[in-house]
Design brief:
With about 200 residues, the protein is α+β, with helices and mostly antiparallel strands. The chain is built from five helices and nine strands; from the N terminus they run ββββββαβαααββα. It has one domain. The longest helix is centred in the middle third of the chain and has 10 residues. The two termini are about 25 Å apart.
């Protein structure tokens, strides 16, 4: 039986009774070449990236596909990819596929060791139980050997450039990902025990 939408997700658009994550694509979203400006507290300047023409919540969600503008936003602004609320806690939770699972299995390894770059941003601890229970993409990752990553240290990496626009200096991210530095992989079956323990 499908769980009810949690109270903290009731502000999200729904599709067939499921709360649609903030990061999700809607309709046939395409980059339209316009900048979207957001304040960036870390840089004390304007943060910008190409925005998508299709607004959130309009049309049909393309489940399992990220909106690139919102993906960049949640990483840069430390938001949960599902509820879009600020994440302040440590550790940070990630749902990762089988390819990344092998790459991050030895996060405590020697200095200079390669680490995985994760395009899936963090999920807050309040949203994670709901995501595990209802998200088709997460179920697919679980069935194909994915895992949960509880990261205690990470770095945000990406390509950014400075531009003069709108009469001020802005930074534009062409891509942005998360590189976990320290953490542990947790099997889906052990998640509840670990979260409550």
């Amino acid at each position: 039986m499908r769980p009810d939408v949690p109270r903290h997700l009731r502000h999200r658009p729904t599709w067939h009774g499921l709360a649609v994550p903030y990061i999700n694509c809607w309709g046939d979203e395409v980059d339209d070449g316009r900048w979207r400006l957001l304040p960036d507290a870390n840089l004390q300047r304007e943060l910008a990236w190409w925005t998508a023409a299709w607004p959130e919540g309009q049309g049909r969600p393309t489940l399992g596909r990220q909106n690139l503008q919102r993906q960049r936003e949640v990483v840069a602004r430390t938001l949960c990819q599902v509820c879009a609320h600020q994440i302040g806690q440590r550790p940070r939770w990630f749902v990762i596929g089988a390819d990344s699972t092998q790459n991050v299995a030895n996060l405590e390894g020697a200095e200079g060791q390669r680490v995985a770059l994760i395009t899936e941003p963090w999920v807050c601890a309040r949203c994670l139980p709901y995501v595990i229970a209802v998200c088709p993409g997460v179920r697919r990752m679980r069935d194909e050997g994915g895992a949960l990553l509880r990261a205690t240290e990470w770095q945000v990496v990406g390509t950014k450039s400075w531009h003069e626009a709108y009469g001020r200096q802005i930074v534009a991210w062409s891509w942005i990902k998360v590189a976990p530095v320290k953490g542990e992989l947790i099997e889906f079956a052990d998640f509840t025990k670990v979260l409550n323990g």
